[in-house]
Amino acid sequence: MSSSHILSIVTFIYGLAFFLYLFEWVFKKETAGRMATAVAILGFTGNTAGIILRWVESYRMGIGHAPLSNLYESLVFFAWCIILLHLFVEWRYRNRIIGLIGSLLAVSALAYASLKPDQIQPLIPALKSNWLIAHVFTCFIGYASFAIAFGISLLYLLRHIGGPAILERLPSDSLMDELTHQLVMFGFLFLSAGIISGAVWANSAWGRYWGWDPKETWSLITWLIYATVLHARMMRGWRGQRIAYLSMVGFAAMLFTYFGVNLLPGLHSYGAFSQ
After folding, report:
1. For residue 212, what pLDDT is reported?
2. Average pLDDT of 142-153?
């Protein structure tokens, strides 16, 4: 069985986990919640196996690189990061609403990945660097943190603008606000590390640390937005809806950094052709 087949199965496993989390939330069935967590762990194990097998497959083809070089592979890794964080936060806070968000985001990422070419291709010269793994890993841990923070912020705002009555079953406002803050802070640290490692990589690939390439520029914009979120929270005392709105603005910038800039000319435009 190929890595692509395994990852296709994982997509359905994450989908099952989402529906079990949803069932537990709607009908307050603890058994469904425990099953959802178990299924999510199973999916995460399969996701991990798929990534490792794809890495092995690239060596068997004589290419031999980490599976992080195109949109398909990055989406697979994005889903892996999301589930990793969701399982940790669910365990840390003993609240499965994170699982509802994480599983939905992960299945969406893998479903979108399934629409993209999954062939393993040789790396272009710019990607042949040991900094690739460090840069992608740190950036995507940050992206996953921001994605889950976005989900929490969205539910928070829906409850406060008169959403369905079932939203009253969400965790307390204080817990959701704290989770958003912790996830944004965690993601900000990893995004910072990703930008720094990317600068070192850029210097080795193109002979300069920073060149205002669209990807670099929008990474900086995203970083500044989340820096504003943290500043507003810690220095200005902002909480609740204002932080939730800022978190959503940051996530929109992150999505454009991830997907949108590949359509623009620049040194990172190889992504548009390898997707």
Report:
1. 86
2. 98
